[in-house]
Amino acid sequence: MEKINKRQRQDRILARLTSTVAVRISTLAEEFGVTTETIRRDLDELAGRGLLARTYGGAAGRTLASEPGVKTRAQKLVAERHRIALQAASLVSPGDVIMIDAGSTTTHLAEVLMQNLIEVKVITNSLGAARLLGQSDTAEVMFCPGELRWTEEGVFGPETLGFLDRFHADLAFIGAGGFTAEEITDADASGAWIKRKMIARTERAVLIADHEKAGVTQFATVCGLLELDDFITDAPLSADLADAFARAGVNVQTAAQGRTGLAA
């Protein structure tokens, strides 16, 4: 039997829940060759991170269209998302026009860009990104019109899409609720429309997402891997995911932990 570590085991449990309604502790313990108590701890940990729902004797997948708001998501994996943001900011050159969509990781990117004092023009539907970069003397911010969704701290809808259609960008930074070897997905359909539009209007589409999104499929498809140019995450991908992104020609960067807690 193949010996795998805790993270690999948990990733496989989440991957299983993308194709089946529920899993049983006893079945998983037998499959992975570990005790039922080990699986129980795995499921409790994943449930605590909001990645699945615990049931009697096992677990069920989180509702495809259900996701906590931006403020709740922003409280998790803060250091990891900051490292991703630092790596992403290194792609931006002075004078670039960039698009930033609404999300927790993209807000981290806006904060880093504000601190870097880089001359940049930003088009965004994110209240957080606009608020942060609006304080910078070197960033010009264009905030999209649209329907306000306070839980997502952003604006969405036809007016937003129409506004984005008027511009081109050098880079677009988008987040996601999940990524697999086939596609990028999100829990919010209106948010997925914005991400797709930004990808269509940019020269270089950059996905920024933490390792907890690996193997997760959510309600709305954003795009296939072929539509991305770069992917920045905080931990190495599994072999199958790394191979899929490589075959799609996506430049994958891992924002590793450095001695100072910043991107190495």
Question: Brief overview, please?
Answer:
With 264 residues, the chain is an alpha/beta fold. It contains 10 helices and 15 strands. It has 2 domains: 6-61, Winged helix-like DNA-binding domain superfamily/Winged helix DNA-binding domain (Arc Repressor Mutant, subunit A), CATH 1.10.10.10; 70-254, Rossmann fold (3-Layer(aba) Sandwich), CATH 3.40.50.1360.
How would you describe this structure in keywords?
37% helix; alpha/beta; 10 helices; disordered C terminus; Rossmann fold; 24% strand; 2 domains; 7-stranded parallel β-sheet; Arc Repressor Mutant, subunit A
Describe the structure.
37% of the residues lie in helices and 24% in strands. With 264 residues, the protein is of the alpha/beta class. Helix 5 packs across helix 6 (104-116) and helix 6 runs parallel beside helix 7 (127-133). The protein has a seven-stranded parallel beta sheet with strand order 6-5-4-9-12-14-15, with helices on both faces. Strands 1-3-2 form a three-stranded antiparallel beta sheet.
